[in-house]
Amino acid sequence: MEQELALFYFLLLGFGVLMYVILDGFDLGLGVLYPWFDGEGERDTVMRSISHVWDGNETWLVFGGVVLFAAFPAAYAHLLSSLYVPLVLMLVGLILRGVAFEYRFKSVRSKRVWDAAFFGGSTLAAMCQGMVLGAVVQGGEMVGEMFVLHWVTPFTIFTGLSVLAAYALLASCYLVLKTRGDLLVRAARLGRRLVVAMMVSLVIVSLWMLYSNEWVRTRWLEGLNALYLLPMPVLSAVFGFWLYRALDGNECGARPFWLAVGLFVMGFVGLVAGLFPFLLPHQVTLWELHAPESSLWFALPGVLIFLPLVLAYTLWGYRIFAGKVEDFEEGY
Length: 332
Fold this sequence. Notes:
mainly alpha, 77% helix, two-stranded antiparallel ribbon
């Protein structure tokens, strides 16, 4: 039963990370795209489109951290100590965004300052998240009893830039869903370019990992594994093609956004498939790092109570604020 509980928490951690990447991804992406929108009116609309959800989206970051701490405390200690600098920088970026939201709608002369804080904080947070992802994927080494990850390498810088493009793609699809007119057309045009950038990034990262990492190469290419795992890259290509066609600048509802989500899900599943069952990549598995069985049982009632509540208020919030952002809406 202990191993089944550990696997449950591992899947729960993956679910929390995926929810955060999708939900906070598009609002970080709006900050990354912010300079590409002209005039105070367009920028007001961009910020109003997420003013009701941005802080709730970050709940999933806390949720993932709590699951990692409760179920895999050794991994929590090793990963956070190795990645202390980029994680602190990420939090600084998130703080800048939060302050920009609160102050921009009330400011007159200092709006440019808060515009810069929104763009800079979003870009810094997204870049740091991408570099953390790259550091985890490329793995590290054991130095004594400490697991060390190198977070500034060519690979982590590339994954950071890739995450910037991916979040910006989600954001452009979200704006197609939430806006009208010229802003929708501009978002769709940017989205088409970003689809190409994301697909190229996925190919480069995949080939880079296959070339540089023996474990990933074995997992994907040995025996019948390539046949079993083939649907993931095929579906990614299909989603990318459909998404490019859907971003034609016309009113097309939620279709582009859900296609972009599908593309993210395929990328995430492929990542997990290449790394499972390692929690500290290529060194220690989740079976070796989970908390004692008594601790896993102790945390389970909290998970079963609060996860449905978080899902419920997230879905309810998006349901209440469904529809287009209208020009007559004011404030935050």
